[in-house]
């Protein structure tokens, strides 16, 4: 079946990168084949998750692992695990956390919109520190410690550019001294692939990764790596729990008293992963672990150089310039990016107009908008095939020419 014709779809060119709203990463044919194979069979999902967990543990150096439907789902399940542990009553009550410890501390410089995933489990975010670094305040370890109390269950520590925040090893040390966990959001922490092991090595209790971004797994996949007891709690709150204790894979937990009883479907039941997603994530993770990162960066640089040369040949508008930037960029971007600067911060409207014109072109081309406020439209190549470079060049030329008399030129 030709899905484009059958459903009237409009494929886009993704020159942004692995952003979720433009389709994340493309899957390698080997990963697609693994998913197709899994889709045609049946598996016991709890057993499949155990096998996946061992692969994830081996890839990350963690005690245990678990496949989720994304890093956000991983954060929600991680928060749920820290709040409910192995208590079936708490598992049953989430996201209602009235009367139970539910506070997750976060440094002010670490606040981001993904903490909604933690709140989804019923957590209350407790923000500490200042964001004025350098000069007007930062976060100190004592501020984190002062916020820890009987209601604290964890500290959230996203991987992001956050000057003036207390680093993970120090946060982990103080958290463990107080008997609480550290949950790391590493969705933006890959590449480099060395970061698959880094956060566990630095003391994180749970790390949430995205499978649909750098790793190139199914777009709606991800995984948790971390402490075995927390991973078990996450699993209990995620699996289909329509089970009989006499035949349940984990029935011995009830018989030996580790669990007071069989929990009902938990908060994670609304974020299920299918067998295809689990197998696809595993196939992609294996490829990612074996990947030659230098070669991949060189591939992306070559595509971006080709795009830059093509745009340049066509002639740039007055005041515009092109710069190929190499990682790390602004302390946060770990892959090469081409900047088309339309004239600095005086040109933010021109940059937004160009981005919009590209999205409205045929084919639609989506570009990075992370620097629009300084008049820059950016291009990433992690999601581009070599043969799309000329498509991007033509689209930019058309948008610049077409709009010369309107907003952009
Ligand atoms: C993308 C992202 C997420 C969410 O990841 P999904 O796999 O799409 O759920 C969470 N946190 C950060 C920092 C991200 O960039």
What is this structure's SSE topology?
Layout: H1 3-7, E1 13-15, H2 29-39, H3 45-60, E2 64-68, H4 71-84, H5 88-93, E3 103-107, H6 115-120, E4 124-128, H7 141-147, E5 152-158, H8 168-177, E6 181-185, H9 195-201, E7 206-210, E8 222-226, H10 228-236, H11 251-255, H12 275-290, H13 293-314, E9 321-325, E10 337-341, H14 348-359, E11 365-367, E12 376-380, H15 389-402
Parallel strand pairs: 1-11, 3-4, 3-5, 5-6, 6-7
Antiparallel strand pairs: 2-8, 7-8, 9-10, 10-12
Bound molecules: pyridoxal-5'-phosphate (PLP).
Residues 20, 70-72, 114, 158, 185, 187-188, 210, 212, 222 line the site of pyridoxal-5'-phosphate (PLP).
Give a written overview of the molecule:
The protein is α/β, with parallel strands linked by helices and 409 residues long. It has 2 domains: 3-10 and 292-400, Alpha-Beta Complex (Aspartate Aminotransferase, domain 1); 42-290, Aspartate Aminotransferase, domain 2. It contains 15 helices and 12 strands. The protein has helices at 3-7, 29-39, 45-60, 71-84, 88-93, 115-120, 141-147, 168-177, 195-201, 228-236, 251-255, 275-290, 293-314, 348-359, 389-402, and strands at 13-15, 64-68, 103-107, 124-128, 152-158, 181-185, 206-210, 222-226, 321-325, 337-341, 365-367, 376-380. The chain has a 7-stranded mixed sheet with strand order 2-8-7-6-5-3-4, with helices on both faces. Strands 9-10-12 form a 3-stranded antiparallel sheet. Helix 3 runs parallel beside helix 12 (275-290) and helix 4 (71-84) crosses helix 10 (228-236). The radius of gyration is 23 Å and the shape is globular. The site of pyridoxal-5'-phosphate has 12 residues, from helix 4.
């Amino acid at each position: 079946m030709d899905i484009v014709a059958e459903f009237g779809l409009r494929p886009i060119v993704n020159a942004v990168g692995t952003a979720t709203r433009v389709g994340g990463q493309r899957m390698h044919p080997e990963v697609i084949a693994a998913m197709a194979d899994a889709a045609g069979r049946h598996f016991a999902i709890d057993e499949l998750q155990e096998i996946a967990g061992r692969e994830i543990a081996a890839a990350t150096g963690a005690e245990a692992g678990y496949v989720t439907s994304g890093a956000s789902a991983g954060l929600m399940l991680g928060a749920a695990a820290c709040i409910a542990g192995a208590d079936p009553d708490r598992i049953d009550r989430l996201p209602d956390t009235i009367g139970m410890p539910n506070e997750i501390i976060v440094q002010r410089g670490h606040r981001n919109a993904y903490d909604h995933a933690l709140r989804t489990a019923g957590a209350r975010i407790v923000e500490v520190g200042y964001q004025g670094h350098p000069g007007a305040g930062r976060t100190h370890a004592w501020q984190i410690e002062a916020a820890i109390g009987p209601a604290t269950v964890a500290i959230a520590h996203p991987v992001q550019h956050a000057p003036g925040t207390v680093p993970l090893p120090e946060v982990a040390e103080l958290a463990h001294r107080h008997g609480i966990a550290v949950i790391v959001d590493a969705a933006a922490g890959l590449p480099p692939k060395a970061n698959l092991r880094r956060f566990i090595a630095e003391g994180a209790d749970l790390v949430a990764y995205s499978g649909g971004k750098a790793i190139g797994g199914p777009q709606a996949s991800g995984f948790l790596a971390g402490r075995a007891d927390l991973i078990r709690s996450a699993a209990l709150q995620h699996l289909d729990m329509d089970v009989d204790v006499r035949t349940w894979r984990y029935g011995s937990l009830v018989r030996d008293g580790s669990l007071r009883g069989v929990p009902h479907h938990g908060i994670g039941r609304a974020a299920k992963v299918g067998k295809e997603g689990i197998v696809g994530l595993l196939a992609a993770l294996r490829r990612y672990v074996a990947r030659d990162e230098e070669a991949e960066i060189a591939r992306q640089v070559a595509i971006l150089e080709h795009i830059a040369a093509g745009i340049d040949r066509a002639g740039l508008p007055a005041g515009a310039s092109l710069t190929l930037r190499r990682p790390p960029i602004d302390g946060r971007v770990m892959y090469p990016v081409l900047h088309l600067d339309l004239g600095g911060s005086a040109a933010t409207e021109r940059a937004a107009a160009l981005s919009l014109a590209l999205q409205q072109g045929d084919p639609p081309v989506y570009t990075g908008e992370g620097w629009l406020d300084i008049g820059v439209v950016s291009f990433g190549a992690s999601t581009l095939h070599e043969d799309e470079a000329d498509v991007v060049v033509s689209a930019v030329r058309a948008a610049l020419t077409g709009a010369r008399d309107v907003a952009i030129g």
